[in-house]
């Protein structure tokens, strides 16, 4: 893709990069002020101890209660993370043994494959198919498959699919019946459109469930590297032991900024989400106008579209970058079942997204 983008530049084409899912919005100003003030406070310069993380743990527990009606103990059921990605890799190390089975959706966020490999896990994939709204069919998992962990993510990257509270109740019950830990990766919890509000898997109870939250998308703080894990006390304690050998929690100033972000009124997150909704509403009609088949997402910062002309997704993405300067992610990068699709990240203003669709429309 990089080489294709360079060739497009060489031909004088401006690049419209829709391939990377990093929010281009700024964090709330009050969050930045909190961080700036913290850098002037010498109390933030030392190693943060577990006890120093209490304000962020309290803010995370209060957020989960306010937003999802979930009551957790901030001492035993919540742990700050250096981002959800860090949290997932360490959580898998903490709760599994090598050769344990991990049930992983296909397609999925690509770092899941690496986290599974680092933990030495045996991956069994769970198909996410368009005809099932990209929700897995757990009843199709053979009885002899006894996974240590089931990993889910809704609102979903890359498909933008959403799941309701009943789905999480069923998934949690399925996991409890098998002694499987349900890990729900939830970085798009607040990136939802219109009247749609994403539920938490923790609404099905914290026992046997861990949810990973991130401020990267909800508060546009991807570079800050901060999030939190919440749920099953045994799994959280195991994660804390592994992290204790690896890191010292996020910088205290970032913890203060994150705690403030989590306590802001919900309208702050809604305003950011509305920007992505406006982009969705610009891109989708423009794609349909050039003959693309694409569902309207209710959440996330992506559009998952079928590649036209049955071309394979990598060949299409390379050709699109080279000939039109529009960079998208090939579906194959997200797993075998991602083939046939490409992912558009809604990380440009509406007029640029319309321009991207117009350029793609010129591809023969
Ligand atoms: C599903 C999913 N999980 C985790 C992450 C990374 O989150 P964080 O920035 O908190 O590590 C992303 C980022 O794109 C994602 O899409």
UniProtKB/TrEMBL annotation:
<dbReference type="InterPro" id="IPR050881">
    <property type="entry name" value="LL-DAP_aminotransferase"/>
</dbReference>
<dbReference type="InterPro" id="IPR015422">
    <property type="entry name" value="PyrdxlP-dep_Trfase_small"/>
</dbReference>
<dbReference type="InterPro" id="IPR015421">
    <property type="entry name" value="PyrdxlP-dep_Trfase_major"/>
</dbReference>
<feature type="domain" description="Aminotransferase class I/classII large">
    <location>
        <begin position="15"/>
        <end position="360"/>
    </location>
</feature>
<dbReference type="InterPro" id="IPR004839">
    <property type="entry name" value="Aminotransferase_I/II_large"/>
</dbReference>
<keyword id="KW-0808">Transferase</keyword>
<protein>
    <submittedName>
        <fullName>LL-diaminopimelate aminotransferase</fullName>
    </submittedName>
</protein>
<dbReference type="GO" id="GO:0008483">
    <property type="term" value="F:transaminase activity"/>
</dbReference>
<dbReference type="InterPro" id="IPR015424">
    <property type="entry name" value="PyrdxlP-dep_Trfase"/>
</dbReference>
<dbReference type="Pfam" id="PF00155">
    <property type="entry name" value="Aminotran_1_2"/>
</dbReference>
<keyword id="KW-0032">Aminotransferase</keyword>
């Amino acid at each position: 893709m990089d080489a294709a983008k360079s060739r497009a530049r060489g031909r004088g084409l401006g690049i419209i990069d829709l391939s990377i899912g990093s929010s281009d919005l700024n964090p709330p100003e009050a969050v930045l002020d909190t961080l700036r003030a913290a850098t002037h406070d010498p109390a933030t310069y030392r190693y943060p101890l577990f006890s120093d993380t209490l304000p962020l743990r309290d803010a995370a527990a209060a957020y989960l209660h306010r937003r999802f009606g979930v009551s957790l103990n901030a001492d035993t059921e919540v742990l700050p993370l250096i981002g959800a990605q860090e949290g997932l890799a360490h959580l898998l190390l903490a709760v599994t043994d090598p050769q344990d089975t991990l049930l992983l959706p296909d397609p999925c966020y690509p770092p899941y494959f690496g986290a599974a490999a680092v933990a030495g896990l045996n991956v069994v994939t769970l198909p996410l198919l368009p005809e099932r709204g990209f929700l897995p069919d757990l009843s199709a998992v053979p009885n002899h498959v006894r996974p240590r962990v089931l990993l889910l993510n809704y609102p979903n990257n890359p498909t933008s699919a959403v799941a309701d509270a009943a789905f999480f109740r069923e998934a949690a019950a399925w996991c409890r019946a098998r002694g499987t830990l349900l890990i729900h990766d939830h970085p798009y919890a607040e990136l939802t459109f219109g009247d749609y509000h994403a539920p938490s898997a923790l609404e099905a109870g914290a026992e046997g469930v861990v949810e990973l939250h991130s401020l990267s998308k909800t508060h546009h703080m991807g570079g800050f590297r901060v999030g939190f894990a919440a749920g099953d006390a045994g799994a959280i304690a195991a994660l804390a032991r592994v992290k204790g050998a690896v890191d010292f929690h996020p910088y205290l100033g970032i913890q203060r900024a994150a705690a403030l972000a989590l306590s802001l009124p919900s309208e702050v997150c809604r305003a950011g989400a509305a920007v992505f909704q406006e982009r969705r509403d610009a891109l989708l009609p423009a794609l349909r106008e050039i003959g693309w088949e694409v569902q309207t997402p209710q959440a996330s910062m992506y559009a998952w579209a079928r590649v036209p002309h049955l071309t394979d997704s990598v060949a299409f993405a390379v050709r699109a970058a080279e000939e039109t300067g529009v960079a998208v992610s090939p579906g194959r990068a997200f797993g075998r079942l991602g083939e046939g699709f490409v992912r558009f990240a809604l990380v440009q203003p509406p007029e640029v997204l319309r321009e991207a669709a117009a350029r793609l429309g010129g591809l023969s």
